[in-house]
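Q: Hand in one record:
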Amino acid sequence: MSAELLLALKNIEKSFTGVHALKGVDFDLHRGEIHALVGENGAGKSTLVKALTGIVEKDSGEIIYLGRMFKPRSPRHALEMGIGIIHQELNMMDHLTVAQNIFIGRESLRSGGLLLDERQQNRRTSELLEQLNMNIDPTETLGKLTVGKQQMVEIAKAVSHNLRILILDEPTAALTDAEISELFAIMRDLARQGVGMIYISHRMDEIGRIADRVTVLRDGAYVGTRDAREVSKSEIISMMVGRVIYEKPKTESNVAADAPVVLKVDRLNAGRLVKDVSFELRQGEILGFAGLMGAGRTETARAIFGADEVQSGSIAIRGRPVRNATPADAVAHGIGYLSEDRKRFGLALNLSVKENAVLASYERFQKRLFIHARKVEKATEEYVQKLSIRTPSLDQILRNLSGGNQQKVVIAKWLIRNSEILIFDEPTRGIDVGAKSEIYSLMNELAHSGKSIIMISSELPEVLRMSDRIIVMCEGRVTGELDIAEASQEEIMKYATQRQAGVA
């Protein structure tokens, strides 16, 4: 590659207590290049960019930036030097305007620096957004924008610091397809202006669309760098996990036609996005729910679980009507819910693995006013082994585990509770391909053992790979039901865009 070398990381080493996070990693970035950095959770990607942006200090190795040795003292120092990072979880202030967020700490002032010059600041913001082809009002309150627009504001903020390098960490995790296309257009514009970008993502299909080169890390070590146009998805995955992972769609249902119905939902209505929803779930079945953003899939799951109020309709478990007025009612009826946002609704990140694992079952381990610690340890240890949860100990604080292992702890929580019906909402969002494969195997094992699963997913290949049957929703209604033998991405999308189907 002939373009100017912006950055070279050479033989970077970093260890934390008991963990060798980076083992002699090399990485480089050229002017105007989009360089994807991939690997399983725990591969060292985050640690590498933290070392580059001054969040952590490397133990050894060299960072050469713009031809000189560079030692970042803090993220602010790195940004002042032209290295910006956009985290998966945005770091902005919702109550301030777009302009105030972009220039916070660098406000336009008048009257000798005593008063804020809002007009000048809005004008500077408008010019910046226009330069980046971002159609955003500088005076709009940030919290009123979509996640995609908020992300663009954070990119604009980074660019306003005379940006040379932009790091994007899982930038598309919460974006719609249209927002992803808009983000990629902005990234290409920045590349044409000479900005080099480090792009971290678990989505292999996106890497082929946007990246020039791909560097793979595994277990903290450098595996290799490939031209993105010349390497296949399966090759990248094999480099990441050290083995071949097969992603073939399911071609026939594993559920007998006479399997008993464990959950029947009839003409359920809840809020704006659950309208006369009806379906059945059979024992041992994985029932996929597909649809576009805003179709009402998560809202349906929340209504069944008692997290949202039901206006009308009925829910029956094994033929017996139940009323889940609260999540506690649903749990008592044998339903476990793995939320799409596990960090907010599924886990207590500052508690240990074992404390999280028994969150839904404390009454089983109570002895008068005390918790039977040995029984808690025994139950947790059983499922840590069964689910292959990688943790140094049962006392490990959960936020220190990878996304895939956090997801397994949520599953352990509901299995310890002995839930018969499991709702998996976006079960593999934000986790890597190796962990995805493990979650898929686990879900199949659970279904084979007689558990019944509702799986909500925005990834159509995932829906086709895992489901025995597929319910498709659009604008709050069920618009189609497909046996896996007749399902395809095209057929699902036909029903996912079939507005008002079933309306008299």
Observations:
- Residues 500-504 have pLDDT under 50 and may be disordered.
- The CA atoms of residues 469 and 484 lie 5 Å apart.
- The chain has three domains: 5-241, 246-334+420-504, 348-417.
- The longest strand covers residues 5-16.
